[in-house]
Specification:
23% of the residues lie in helices and 24% in strands. The protein is of the alpha+beta class and 97 residues long.
Length: 97
């Protein structure tokens, strides 16, 4: 996948997620993710996770709100992990473990 930019991914209960705040700067996306976490922190409904994901501009625009697909971009590539493989099953320790 050619990375055109980054978006903030909000994961909601029920395996739903959405992408917001597309930008071409990873640093800006990380700042926006921090702001998004602070925004939702005091509310009665909070996302389960707020992460930065690599995504193309067209894919971000075309993405349905509150999507439940497991094929959508995750933060795994930014962590040096494969989104398709589970390192624990391959006998490799998880990062930070």
């Amino acid at each position: 996948m050619d990375i055109e930019g980054y978006a903030v991914r909000l994961d909601w209960p029920g395996l739903r997620h959405e992408f917001t705040q597309f930008t071409t700067s990873r640093r800006r996306a990380e700042r926006r993710a921090g702001s998004t976490r602070r925004f939702w922190a005091m509310g009665p409904l909070r996302p389960l996770a707020v992460t930065v994901v690599p995504i193309g501009r067209a894919a971000c625009r075309a993405h349905a709100g509150e999507c439940a697909s497991t094929a959508c971009p995750t933060t795994a590539p930014l962590l040096g992990l494969s989104a398709d493989a589970d390192p624990a099953l391959e006998g490799r320790p998880l990062r930070g473990a």
